[in-house]
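Is this the right way to post structure tokens for a design question? Let me know if I should format differently. Anyway, here goes:
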């Protein structure tokens, strides 16, 4: 793994979290807070499994992107759910 690849592996999580904002807002309004968080659990686990069983760097990128998306989505949905 090169230094550039390491840098992208570390930073791609943030990209996933940024993309999660509008999508999570839509999901929370359409499906509700609890259901949205439940729907995020499977992709979150799948992202970690992609990282764990990665055969190459692009697979790590994808796993990090998915876990970043789900982490960002949980960060938005959980406080709303807790406040209710």
């Amino acid at each position: 793994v090169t230094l550039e690849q390491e840098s992208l592996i570390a930073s791609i999580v943030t990209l996933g979290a940024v993309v999660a904002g509008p999508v999570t807002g839509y999901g929370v309004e359409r499906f509700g807070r609890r259901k949205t968080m439940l729907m995020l659990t499977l992709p979150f686990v799948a992202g970690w499994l992609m990282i764990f069983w990665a055969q190459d760097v692009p697979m790590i990128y994808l796993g990090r992107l998915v876990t970043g998306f789900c982490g960002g989505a949980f960060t938005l949905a959980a406080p709303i759910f807790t406040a209710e």
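Format looks fine. Someone answered above. Worth noting: The chain has one domain: 3-83. Helices lie at 3-31, 33-52, 57-83.
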